[in-house]
Write a structure and sequence with these properties.
With 171 residues, the protein is mainly alpha-helical. The chain is built from 5 helices and 2 strands, in the order ααβαβαα. The chain is 42% helix and 6% strand. β1, α3 and β2 form a beta-alpha-beta unit. The N and C termini lie far apart (48 Å).
């Protein structure tokens, strides 16, 4: 009975987080939001997820992919990055019946640039061993308030106007 209750709570939390992401993306003007149907706490690389991410990369053929810092303090974030890197490579190979994202070589065809999102303040042993020195800094001053409104949609992750994690605009 307890496991059923925990399962129901987890399913409700998963649905809440999906809706929060859709709502945050709407604030940013993003309407193409995709969910692959996997839990968000994957501890190891899963080739099915790599293949599914590669399918999306092959379909969209992005110019830029932004993912987590490879040594993020959240192990699930680090694994997500590793799967994204493998998927970017996989998408550039010929896979029968699958979308193909050329990886360069042709005129006007380039592999996507991969950027890592990193923020100061959190650390673990791996982060301390591999210091994050940015090579690209993107100034979001013009959209900071919009980003703050989008982040506030993630109430289940301690964001929101009344949360201590709220980024106080103007302070």
């Amino acid at each position: 009975e307890l496991s059923t209750q925990i399962g129901l709570r987890r399913a409700a939390l998963d649905e809440q987080r999906r809706q929060e992401l859709v709502d945050a993306c709407a604030v940013l003007g993003v309407s193409d939001v995709r969910f692959l149907g996997y839990p968000d706490d994957i501890p190891v690389i899963d080739k099915r997820i790599v293949s599914d991410i590669a399918d999306v990369i092959g379909e969209i053929q992005p110019n830029v992919i932004i993912t987590h810092w490879p040594y993020d303090s959240s192990p699930a974030h680090a694994v997500a990055t590793q799967m994204t890197l493998l998927a970017a490579e996989t998408a550039s190979t010929i896979r029968p019946g699958k979308p193909y994202a050329p990886s360069g070589g042709g005129e006007g065809v380039h592999a996507p640039q991969i950027l890592y999102h990193a923020s100061a303040g959190r650390s673990n042993v791996l982060e301390n061993l591999t210091i994050r020195i940015p090579t690209i800094i993107i100034d979001i001053s013009d959209v900071f308030e919009q980003k703050s409104r989008a982040m506030n949609k993630f109430r289940s992750q301690n964001y929101g106007e009344d949360s201590p994690m709220q980024r106080k605009v103007g302070e």
